[in-house]
Every structure is written in structure tokens, then in C-alpha cells.
Amino acid sequence: ARDHGVEQTSKAYVRHDPSVELGRTLLDAIDECGADLVVMASHVPGLPDHLFTSHAGHLATHTSASVFVVR
To answer: Which residues in 6-63 belong to E strands, given as ranges?
Structure first.
């Protein structure tokens, strides 16, 4: 990234139950750094994925940043 003039930073977020708190944690991180694009990985959906909302779907509906999901 440095070779192309792109600034990069990192920050660790520690949560008691990341699977439950992931949506809120990601939203906080997006707001904190002012991201305008979020790139997330996905997987082939199974039965539980049809019953519960995805993290990417949650982000897409709760942030003004664009969410790009890659499978």
C-alpha cells in the first residue's frame, strides 16, 4: 500500500463474544475511521444462513459506507 501512496492503519477490537457483537463492533470501526467502502468475505450459505441475517447484510443496512461482499 505504501508503494502506491495509500495510507494504512490498524486497530484491534476485543469483545467478550465476537460472534454476537461483530455487527456493532464493525459499525463502530467504520464510523471511527470514516470508511467509505467495506470489503467482506462470504461463504456458500448453509441452512443457518437462511434463518439468521448475515454480518454483511447487517452492515449494508446500518451504515452509509458501501459494502462489497466477495465470495
So the answer is: 37-41
Q: How confident is the model at residue 55 (pLDDT cuts 50, 70, 90)?
A: confident
37: DSSP letter = E
The domains of the chain are located at 2-70
Residues 6+ apart with CB under 8 A from 44: 71
Using CB atoms within 10 Å of the CB of residue 59, give its burial: 0 to 12 exposed, 13 to 18 middle, 19+ buried: buried
Question: Which grid cell is 42?
Answer: 462470504
The model's pTM: 0.70
Give the span between the Cα atoms of 41 and 21, in whole angstroms: 18
